[in-house]
Amino acid sequence: MQPNCFQVVATKVALDGIIFGPWDLLLLFTYMGLSNGKTVPQIKEDVKRDFIPALIMEGSIWPILQVANFRFVPVRNQR
């Protein structure tokens, strides 16, 4: 299969959104909270309040960009 065929691109986008998306958001919330001097309980509260809306927003925008990335950027340049 070609690395930029529809099936490969769709699989990569789905795996990225399902596996890496939630972890990336969790790490982002944690990093941003710690860098702003928040305590762990405050960060947990932020995650409880904002995680699902952020995940939905990410799921509506990021896949479009990932399709372009996986379809048009050579594999050796995808990081």
TrEMBL record:
Membrane-topology descriptor: Multi-pass membrane protein
Keywords, in A-Z order: Membrane, Transmembrane, Transmembrane helix
InterPro entries: Mpv17_PMP22
Pfam families named among the record's database cross-references: Mpv17_PMP22 (PF04117)
Main location: membrane
Family assignment from sequence similarity: Belongs to the peroxisomal membrane protein PXMP2/4 family.
Annotated protein name in UniProt: Uncharacterized protein
Source organism (scientific name): Nepenthes gracilis (Slender pitcher plant)
